[in-house]
């Protein structure tokens, strides 16, 4: 400033300085003209000449000031930072309301669409359209530079992607009216017509570089500053303005960013080493659990394989044991056959010798012995028959409660008693049958009533209604067929209940309203459906329903508190007013305290249930008790009625059980009487002579004595007889043993055939053979007797081992999956498609093998030291850059 003030106007230095400034001013390009074609609400071509010394846009709000400024911004400002209508919005801080689409289309208002009623933007130009912006710069030497930008939309789209763009720089004056006349969105023709002197660009970067060079603009920051000043009503924070638009970014930020990047890279590298170590620590137990689990499952597979082979192996062993046993039987049979032959020969010899002795005996009186022996055999048969009859008579006497008499006279008295039992038996049996039939009839009645109560209980539990089950079932059937909701068809009783303070009148009121309470109320809109359904359907009972018209005139009457309607409480419902009117009209009965008061009333009831109807008609229906709660239908809550039915059901169940016990006792008595009748009949049909065994025993004793006397006279014959008896006994014993062996052989051969069929249909694996053989070897030697027991022990052992293995499998699986779950939770980005399941075990273990083979955890300390060292160096560099930047900013300011 001082050096400039010491220069006088006549001095050569001052003249040179003025000439230099004048030349610079003459070379400086200034805005001279703005042309907009179809830009915003400027429809068609609009030209705005701009004064060289400065230009001021003035006008009321909405006159287009910001629109023209935005046209300049669209020509000079990079699209990434351009902010349309910023000056108008700055105070409001609202969102952006203008865009290239709104300017190219010529958006002018938001109005409600007459067809859809939605708020929609209204445009001046709705079809294919194009926009041109031209800004002319000129200097004092007559040189001109024109900046041109074209926008067009080929169709009717309104999206930002539908707007096409083209940039041009012309080193001369450019006139939209003449040079773009006939532009039909064909760039190729336009380029040919404008010539090579006009530069064309598809992007802003090349276009901006060309016009900055032509106009002498040093860098893009100047354009940012220009856009900021054009769009600002106030500069706001001066520091932010200087930093953002006048000062270059110092190297400090680059150094800080590099510090952060280096630290992030080193920290990531360190984590990339720490993470594998932690992953290895997490997955190493999984390998052990997996190996143990696989070994366990292999063992389980062998156990199951053994289980599958138990039946076949048992049959194979049974077949072997049967073969051995059959061989033993063959050996025994051959031995017994030899013994039988020897004994048969010995018996033949004895019998031949006996024949000779018997001839001698007959010569010496043997014929008498033979006669006695024949008589003895006959007497023995008679004795056995009497013993059999005597056993029947003794059994019959026990059933009649006595013991068999010792003599004929006592037996005669027992027969007479038996006849009496027979005579009285028919009457007793008839009485028992009648008693059983009577109790069974009572039981059927109780069961029928119990079924009815059960149906009522089920219905009462399903809904709070007190209506009888058949009526509720009828309504449900109607609603199911017509599609009407049950709630839309209430019974009268469901909407009415006796007030709690009038409970003493409950029974009488229930009796009067019993029929009306079961009436169905039908809304006008459902009436036609209900009427048609009832007409075409056999409902099987009596149904009354009322058509409730919504437009009916309801004449409300004054309700006497002592009258029947005054003692009722109505539930809030659409039919409440109609129902109140109907109750007042039809059931306006006075509630009187005694029968005498009935005389003076037109309609009245007593607590005891006597009713006086109009016309001096009296009625009292005591077929059911007036306080029988089971017949009560009114009320919004059926819990009391439910308890009454439950008590009756319990009493009926007890009566049915008692009846069953009585019938069982009567039937047992009848069976006992029948047994007594049979015993009496058996006793009556026998004489004493038929059961007296005494004479036969005496005769056998006499015959034996005579035979002894005759036989002792010939000792040789007696000894020979004994030898024959012994030989016969031994022969018969051998035959019996051979027969037993033959039967056992047949049985074993049948088992052998069946066992061979079962054993031959399955082939055992070596594992099954070895495993089952080892388990049987630990037990006692196998035989046919202990075969089943031994194999039950084997099967039980296999089942216990499998059960234990199942528990171990669950524990190992849980431990293994817990390792996988920890890995996925801590490193989800490394888990990829892994799932916490045994199916992914191979993937997890392969990851563990790869981590161990990479060996990164071994370098953890080295990476940590490098992280610390590099971070310190970067911080020192940042400190140095910060000091340098501070000094540079001071110099620049």
TrEMBL record:
CDD domains: ABC_ATPase (cd00267). Residues 724-751 form a coiled coil. It comes from the Bacteria. InterPro entries: P-loop_NTPase. Keywords: ATP-binding, Coiled coil, Nucleotide-binding. Transmembrane segments: none annotated. Pfam families: AAA_29 (PF13555). The keyword Nucleotide-binding applies. The keyword Repeat does not apply. Residues 359-380 are annotated as: Disordered. One of its GO terms (molecular function) is ATP binding. Residues 371-380 have a biased composition (Basic and acidic residues). SUPFAM superfamilies: P-loop containing nucleoside triphosphate hydrolases. This is ATP-binding protein. It comes from Xanthomonas phaseoli pv. syngonii LMG 9055.
